[in-house]
Amino acid sequence: MNNVVDALQWLTTEDNWWGESGILNRLWEHVQYSFWATLLAAAIALPIGLLIGHTGRGVFVGVNLSGLARAIPTLAVVILVYKLRPLTAWPVVLALTLLAAPPILANTVAGIRGVDPDVRDAAEGMGMTGRTVLWRAELPIALPLVFAGVRSAANQVIATATVAAYAGLGGLGRFITDGYALRRYDEVFGGAILIVALVFVVEGVLALVQRMLVSPGLRRERQPFALLPSRASAPIPELEPLT
Amino acid sequence: MSHHPRRTTTRLAALLAAPLLLLAACGDDDDDAASDTTAAAATAAPDTDAPATDAPATDAPATDAPGTSTAGGGADLADVSLTVGSANFPENELLAEIYAQALEANGATVDRQLNIGNRETYFAAIEGGEIQLLPEYTNSLLSFLLRQRDESPTATNIEEQVAALREELPDNLTVLDASTAEDKDVIVCNAETAEQYGLETLSDLAEVSGEITLGAPPEFAERTPFGIPGFQELYGAEFAEFVPLEIGPPIVDALTSNAINCGNLFSTMSVITTEGFVALEDDKTIVPNEAVLPLIATELAENEGVASVLNEVSATLDTDGLKELMVRVEADAEAPADVAGDWLAENGLA
Q: Do B3 and A86 make contact, defined as CB atoms within 8 angstroms?
């Protein structure tokens, strides 16, 4: 319990917030690594997920590959890339991208595959072609699940971006690594608290973005009689997406 | 049936689990590291046993020769059991193996808890009695003990350092005789940097320090004398940038790719030779003597057999010998346990 008190004291000491090794700068670095990794992962996983989901081809391979990718140890990737590009952001960003891509891919596929076939039929009946069906019908309906994947990925990335400290970079992991090396446990605990807090804040922001982007018609809690959302937000059983 | 609450709960659980998983993953790493070394020691054991069982035959005359000494085979340590620890770098692991196998050769039962971490971490373990013996370095240990009172060592030679250590250590810990083997912190620069600025000594480095990026472990940022404040005080050096990196591959890789100009390594590391780094001469002695010696539980040190076995090891160990052993461990990737066993056998200590 003493550690928590010390950590709070460390957090509320103004000197600890400013400067290159201050909390604000470390927080900013942490956000940057996490942002680029999640963005890169989304840029890779979303198109592939949409394609697999829409065409229905490669579902088995895609979902299993993304499951396998989750087994890759992040620190090993950091070490391997560090050997090639020491003291750049690449080891961290690439390792975190590999961490973030699988949940986004799995949820995107599950979201698109989970769209009611009747909706697809109706869209085609209205004269939409393949791509339009995807953009105007499938994706909007799948959006809650796609978002769940992105949020889950972002959470994992923020919590794991502490590995940057191993690669001689910044981020909130510095407080944990340096605090440990110098036996300053208030700093270790304070850093951990900051990371958890950042996860909560980002989760809140993404939830807000989701609320703005997802069609109000898909919010089941507000539209108890709507027919679509029950299918839209429900994962299809065999895919077991991470939510 | 409502899906939404389930989803929220799962997400919340995932959210809460994320930091926990991270902690668990860290824990796993430690366990892995520990079990790896145990596994390494276990697999190495048959190998070391083989020469060891051969050794007595060939060494029989050798053990007769120094017959007056009780160490190297004379002590009966059958009722002694202990846990040997080591810091998280190969040389310390090798030294721990040397201590462990020397004691085992005299009948002691030895558990190994190698690669524990940095001094801050393993000292807590030996102070708490989880381990009883660990290879240490005179000045580093003394600085560590005095830093807790915001003091720095005044001892200038090994003898004074040993006396000061016995004074400063908590009652349950002591040190035995020091060896002449020294492993000091050293600042090395990659060949490119050394050539560009014509660097040979730390004074040379201080003159151009405003253009130098230096890599060293995080604690370097605040340590005296060997750290940023000490360098500023003694050499008047102000480095352009300090990059916190662990000694070993992180610093070596950063040096070879010129991501850092200079870095903190240990003087007995074989990589300094193999990568063509230039070790800078410490012309103002910022790094004092660092003689290898056993840090040991007082209770165990009071056992004369144990003390004489370890003192005999220290009397035999010197810097050149240690460097040779380190090339085998680092460049030839031989198991520390094997290298330790060979050295003990060669010197008639096992």
A: no
Q: Is A19 on the interface with B (CB under 8 A)?
A: no
Residue A85 belongs to what H/E stretch? none
Residue A20 at interface with chain B, using a CB cutoff of 8 Å: no
Mean pLDDT, residues A115-139: 92
CB-CB under 8 Å, B15 with A87: no
C-beta neighbour count of B33 within 10 angstroms: 15
**For the CA atoms of B63, B66, B72, B73, what is the dihedral angle to 10 degrees?**
50
Of B136, B93, B98, B135, give the one whose Cα is nearest residue B114: B93
Strands B81-85 and B109-113: parallel
Higher pLDDT, B318 or B251: B251
Q: Which two tokens stand for residue A167?
A: 């690669």
Confidence of residue B74 (pLDDT cuts 50, 70, 90): low
Q: Is the peptide bond before B229 cis (omega within 30 degrees of 0)?
A: no
Rounded Cα distance between B67 and B71, Å, is 9
Residue B187 backbone phi and psi in degrees, to 5:
-100, 120
Place of tokens 């330790």: B340
Q: Does A240 score more than 60 pLDDT?
A: no
Q: Is A152 on the interface with B (CB under 8 A)?
A: yes
> In the prediction, which pLDDT does B50 show?
40
Predicted local confidence at residue A220, as pLDDT? 58
pLDDT at B58: 40
What is the sign, positive or negative, of the torsion defined by CA atoms of B66, B72, B77, B80?
positive
Query: Quick check: A63 and A239 in contact, CB under 8 A?
Result: yes
Give me the helices (H) in chain A, please: 2-11, 23-55, 59-69, 74-84, 90-113, 117-125, 130-132, 139-160, 173-181, 185-213, 229-232
A30 contacts chain B (CB < 8 A): no
Task: Please give, rounded to a whole number of angstroms, the shortest distance from the CA of B120 to a CA of chain A.
Answer: 7
Mutation for B interface: A92, A158, A183, A184, most B CBs within 10 A = A183
Identify the band that residue A234 occupies on the pLDDT scale cut at 50, 70 and 90.
Answer: very low
Instruction: Judge whether A239 is closer than 8 Å to chain B, CB to CB.
Output: no
Q: Do A159 and B18 touch (CB under 8 A)?
A: yes
| β-bridge mates for residue B83, sequence order | B111
- From chain A, pick out residues whose CB is under 8 angstroms from the CB of B215: 168
Residue B37 has pLDDT above 60, yes or no: no
Q: Which chain B residue is nearest to residue A88, measuring alpha carbons?
A: B259
> What mean pLDDT is predicted for residues B49-53?
40
> Would you state the pLDDT for residue B45?
39
CA A147/CA A219 separation, integer angstroms: 14
C-alpha span between B252 and B189 (Å, rounded)? 10
Strand locations in chain B, DSSP E? 81-85, 109-113, 133-137, 173-175, 185-189, 213-216, 241-244, 262-266, 278-279, 292-297
B303 by Cβ neighbours in 10 Å (0-12 / 13-18 / 19+) ranks as middle
